[in-house]
Design a protein that fits this description.
With 130 residues, the protein is of the alpha/beta class. Helices cover 43% and strands 18% of the residues. The longest helix is centred in the last third of the chain and has 22 residues.
């Protein structure tokens, strides 16, 4: 089977080259299904984006059936607009943002372990700097 994974990533144009290079370095070019949505894991787990949650699960379920996906790679990124949207505090900084990313990773892991227990999950937070 040539397909290896589904990649959940963000729509932010600044990070598309970073996502591509990250996956290319892991020899995944042409070997993954892509699901791109604002906030990546934040967009498919936070209550402020609730309408998107089932769309992601339905899409992943279809990818598993069609492409025999065994792994999901979740790629969030720093300076995320969706993290700013879901932030309930008045201030926003990198510490608060990291907490939001970690919470989204925990939530998606919990959901995926329940619905798709055999799926492996990898998490990555990309930076514009590196």
């Amino acid at each position: 089977n040539q397909y290896k994974a589904m990649v959940l990533s963000c729509i932010d144009p600044r990070f598309q080259p970073k996502v591509y290079e990250y996956l290319k370095a892991r020899k995944l070019t042409g070997k993954y299904s892509a699901f791109t949505i604002a906030g990546a894991a934040i967009g498919v787990t936070h209550k402020k984006f609730k309408k998107w949650h089932s769309t992601f699960i339905d899409n992943l379920s279809t990818s598993i059936k069609l492409h025999k996906i065994k792994k999901i790679i979740v790629i969030n990124h720093e300076d995320c607009g969706a993290a700013k949207i879901v932030n309930d505090k008045k201030k926003f900084n990198s510490t608060i943002e990291k907490k939001i990313h970690r919470e989204s990773f925990k939530k998606i892991k919990k959901v995926l372990n329940k619905k798709f227990p055999s799926i492996k999950i990898n998490f990555k937070i990309l930076s514009l700097k590196n």
